[in-house]
């Protein structure tokens, strides 16, 4: 799946890794998505869940780790100043136990 802007140089590549129910709903353990620079976590979730309602349901209740850091505010850009143009986002659905 790929979303791009008109300016191909203004993109960020996101390597998504799905765990547990998220991997099941996605039908794969990972995927790569290209988004415009400045895209938020919500933009990412909207892009990958737009045509997969079951995955979107799981995404809405999952925790996100952006390059290993919990992202609670999904309205913030995925990238911060000085971050690379490739990011890793882990999707961790809630689980029992722990």
Automatic annotation (TrEMBL):
Name of this protein: MoaD/ThiS family protein
Top-level taxon: Bacteria
Lineage per the UniProt record: Bacteria, Bacillati, Actinomycetota, Actinomycetes, Micrococcales
Database matches in SUPFAM superfamilies: MoaD/ThiS
Source organism of this protein record: Georgenia yuyongxinii
Gene3D superfamilies in the cross-refs: 3.10.20.30
């Amino acid at each position: 799946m790929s979303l791009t802007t008109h300016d191909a140089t203004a993109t960020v590549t996101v390597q998504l890794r799905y765990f547990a129910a998220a991997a099941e709903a996605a039908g794969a353990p990972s995927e790569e998505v290209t988004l415009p620079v400045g895209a938020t976590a919500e933009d990412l979730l909207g892009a990958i869940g737009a045509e997969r309602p079951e995955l979107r349901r799981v995404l809405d209740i999952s925790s996100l780790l952006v390059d290993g850091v919990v992202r609670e505010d999904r309205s913030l850009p995925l990238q911060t100043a000085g971050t690379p143009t490739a990011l890793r986002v882990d999707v961790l659905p809630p689980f029992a136990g722990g």
